[in-house]
């Protein structure tokens, strides 16, 4: 299986989590479709987001997220998928910090800098995938709890976000 086929086999859950068109005034991303937000992609414009196809969204995720997060270098599919899912939802730097903190939780010595480099990738390859995935789930849930405390309007997303963290 080549890298694009691997990506295609893993992106479905992220698209399921992100859903279709949303224009919720409490969502800081603004108009969003398949998780592609106007805030992150202002050059698309509101109509571009509204008219985005699922294939276009997959192309954006592959080019701007999967490859830039260096997911092809992560051997375990569930870890690569989880990193992508977290990063899509909370941003790439925060997503990588959640991974790095999780690596520390499972005994790996890494700098928590939000950058996915050789040190982080080596630590991922040396970690027990099940333990790392469990740590990532806990850290993602902790991050959401912090967001709920900071902004009570986000409480309405609790059920979905916590289910996403548990995935």
3D structure, described in words:
The chain has eight helices and two strands; from the N terminus they run αββααααααα. The model has no long low-confidence stretch (mean pLDDT 95). The longest helix has 22 residues, at 129-150. The chain has two domains: 1-67, no CATH class; 76-167, no CATH class. The radius of gyration is 16 Å and the shape is globular. It has 167 residues and is mainly α.
Arithmetic mean of pLDDT: 95
**Biggest β-sheet: count, sense, barrel?**
2 strands, antiparallel
Name the beta content range: under 5%
Strand adjacency order, main sheet: 1-2
Q: From the alpha carbons, calculate the radius of gyration and give it in angstroms.
A: 16 Å
Shape type: globular
SSE string: HEEHHHHHHH
Which percent bin holds the helix content?
Answer: 55-70%
Number of helices: 8
Low-confidence stretches: none
* Class by alpha and beta content: mainly alpha
The separation of the N and C termini measures 24 Å
**How many individual domains?**
2
How many strand units?
2
């Amino acid at each position: 299986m080549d890298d694009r086929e691997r990506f295609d086999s893993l992106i479905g859950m992220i698209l399921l989590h992100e859903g279709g068109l949303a224009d919720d005034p409490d969502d800081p991303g603004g108009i969003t479709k398949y998780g592609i937000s106007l805030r992150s992609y202002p050059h698309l414009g509101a109509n571009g987001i509204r008219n985005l196809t699922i294939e276009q969204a997959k192309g954006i995720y592959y080019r701007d997220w999967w490859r830039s997060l260096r997911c092809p270098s992560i051997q375990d599919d569930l870890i690569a998928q989880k990193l992508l899912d977290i990063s899509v939802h909370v941003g790439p730097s925060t997503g990588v910090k959640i991974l790095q903190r999780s690596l520390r939780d499972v005994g790996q010595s890494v700098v928590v800098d939000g950058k996915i480099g050789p040190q982080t990738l080596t630590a991922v390859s040396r970690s027990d995938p099940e333990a790392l995935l469990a740590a990532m789930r806990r850290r993602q849930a902790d991050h959401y709890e912090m967001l709920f405390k900071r902004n009570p309007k986000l409480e309405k997303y609790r059920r979905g976000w916590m289910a996403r963290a548990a995935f």
